[in-house]
Amino acid sequence: MADKSNGVKIGAEDKRHFFKVGFRGAPGTFELSDEHLKKLQSTLLEMLKDFIEVFDGEEIFYTLSGGSVLGAIRHQGFIPWDDDIDINMPRKDFEHLKTVFDKRLGDKYVLCSPESGRGYGMSHVQIKKKGTVYKAFNELTMEDTGIFIDIFVLENTYDNIVKRNIHGIICLFWGYLLTCRKTARDWKELLPFLVNNEELKKAYLKKKRIGSLFNWRSLDKMAKDTIFWYSLCRKGNTEHVCIPSGRKHFFGEMYRREDMCESREAVFEGMKVRIPKGTETYMEILYGSDYMKIPPVENREIHSAVELSFGE
Cα separation of 82 and 308, whole Å? Predict the structure, then answer.
């Protein structure tokens, strides 16, 4: 989709799908059995209930995000083969969450954000359940590898088109550089899982080579630099917001503020949740105009895992 609103391109091609499905069948990996998937979804739902209780109590704005929104409107819960839950949250609300997290959630969960260190090294946020393990290819060298819920931070961006384009280009640069730096750090652990997919190996090798040029700067410092640029615009009343850490990055995830920073109620596995006010526009941008159609098996985004433990 490529709609336009006041000169802002809304939507872009999804370039991350290749990396989401490329590890399927890699040696040393497995896909979840129906029993494990059901148990994982149950754990995630319990986590979501804990989080929503805190969000509501602290007046922290959130909505479901991505495939979780699609699941809510198409399946009234999880997409049957989905193994995660995603949340969107404006920057100011995420900053609030950080100040209360340890007190409200720290006994059961750990907050992993680019600015928190600990070798996390990704541009989006995850809340992970202590005492569990869900290790995939982003977690091979991480200190924290628990079952997680993703949070994607909605960032302000400028109304002035020149400033907005400069902001976007800088965000794309730093986001790509961060993933390259992380690939370089993880290369030895990552390589055994790439041996059967030359195309995927070639793509990661390119990232590794670029990232190796920046070995002089720690991954944690580079992650903090990335978030500095993502959150550069401090104006909370701009017409548009974006999700630089999202699947389609800055320009591909540009939304009208009213569509994403206002919400409506939906039902997810029997519980009341919030989804974006502009859900239809949001889904069309992410998944195309036929987003309500069930995709064929080969196009379903099933994440291959390396290790899974529910801590029981």
Answer: 15
Does 69 have pLDDT greater than 90? yes
The whole-angstrom separation of Cα 54 and Cα 257 is: 24
User: Looking at per-residue confidence, does 63 or 116 come out higher?
Assistant: 63
Instruction: Burial-class residue 75 by CB neighbours within 10 Å (0-12, 13-18, 19+).
Output: middle
- Best CA proximity match to 192, nearest among 22, 26, 32: 26
Q: How confident is the model at residue 245 (pLDDT cuts 50, 70, 90)?
A: very high
The span from the CA of 14 to the CA of 182, in Å, is 21
Residue 33: the pLDDT is: 87
Per the CB < 8 A criterion, the answer to whether 212 and 181 are in contact is no
Domain assignments of the chain as residue spans, ordered by start: 3-296
Q: How many helices (H) and strands (E) does the chain have?
A: 10, 13
H helical segments located in 158-275: 161-190, 198-212, 219-230, 249-252, 257-260
Residue 300 CA to residue 312 CA, distance in Å, equals 30
pTM of the model: 0.91
Q: Which residue has the higher pLDDT, 16 or 115?
A: 115
Dist. CA 53–CA 58, nearest whole Å: 9
Closest CA to 86 of 105, 99, 96, 72: 72
Residue 152 CB-density burial (10 A; 0-12 exposed, 13-18 middle, 19+ buried): buried
Binned at pLDDT 50, 70 and 90, residue 20 comes out as low
pLDDT for the residue numbered 138: 85
Nearest by Cα to 61 from 87, 84, 43, 99 = 87
3-state secondary structure of 48: helix
pLDDT at 23: 64
Which residues are CB-contacts of 96 (< 8 A; sequence separation ≥ 6)? 58, 60
**pLDDT score, position 14:** 47
